[in-house]
Amino acid sequence: MSFNPRFHYTESIVRDFGLIEAARAVVDVLPLPPDRVLRMRQAARERSTRSSTRIEGNTLEEAEIGRVILAPEKALNVMQQEVRNYWRALATTELWRSGYEMRGFLSIEEYYTADLQAYYSSLQMGLPVDYYEGRHDPDHTRWLEYFFTIMAKAADGLREQAETLYAPQVRENPPWERLCRVQQQILTRLVMRGDQKKSDATVFTPGDVGDWFGVSANTARDWLEKWMGEGFVFPEKAGVQRIRNYVLAPGWAEILKSALNNAPVKTT
């Protein structure tokens, strides 16, 4: 005997169905790291199993449920057997068979257990107790509205989680990005000289600046004076009247030495 439930579409069902479809469109195609995919599937299995068995009064702890799912052949007691049997049934549910497994990440049972009173009330659909007074051919619209609302919440939450995992990590810009182009080139020149001469690459002269950039001695000194004010360079010897040599400020000198030693560069 076929089951032909009676229901009608409502505004909330159509709206929630749209949310579910939008979430599925994202989750099904979003590339995620393989290890994260496996973890998300396992987590969804454990949440679904834990929530569904607790609806029935199963009191297994979360860690024990996880062990039973991972090693079902070791399930021994009645509650463990219930978990094992539940998961084998869950794997063939109509939801999954219809293409809404969302890569195995979807878990809606936890939303039921978040408000069991609403769950049981929706199951009753406001029907009378007597079977022949309406329970034999009920209108399932009330249950479907509740179900679609729950599934939309679960699917949209899953979409947000997937998008967060997919979003590229925000990386802090390297410190030299704060420098002007000429200052960046100064660092590059000093790295090259340190590689070639193995000398103290942090020390240089106005003449070096003039040669590197093809500017006059006065222009080179003007640049160096400005850079001292910005904290990029300092005189090699403090207190002298005529500055002959300059050195990078300590922070930039550390970055330069790290580059010469192929060490990780601190970005803070």
**How would you write the strand order of the largest sheet?**
1-3-2
Q: What's the total number of strands?
A: 3
User: Pairing-aware structural class of the strands and helices?
Assistant: mainly alpha
Low-confidence stretches: 68-76, 78-87, 263-268
Instruction: Give me the Rg, rounded.
Output: 34 Å
Helical stretch tally: 12
Mean pLDDT: 76
> What string gives the helices and strands in order?
HHHHHHHHHEHHEEH
What does this structure look like?
The chain is an all-alpha fold and 268 residues long. The protein has 2 domains: 11-166, no CATH class; 175-260, Winged helix-like DNA-binding domain superfamily/Winged helix DNA-binding domain (Arc Repressor Mutant, subunit A, Orthogonal Bundle), CATH 1.10.10. It is built from 12 helices and 3 strands; from the N terminus they run αααααααααβααββα. The chain has a 3-stranded antiparallel sheet. α2 (34-55) packs across α3 (62-70), α2 (34-55) packs across α4 and α3 crosses α4 (78-90). The chain is rod-shaped and about 105 Å long. The relative contact order is 0.10.
Characteristics:
268 residues, mainly alpha, Arc Repressor Mutant, subunit A, 3-stranded antiparallel β-sheet, disordered C terminus
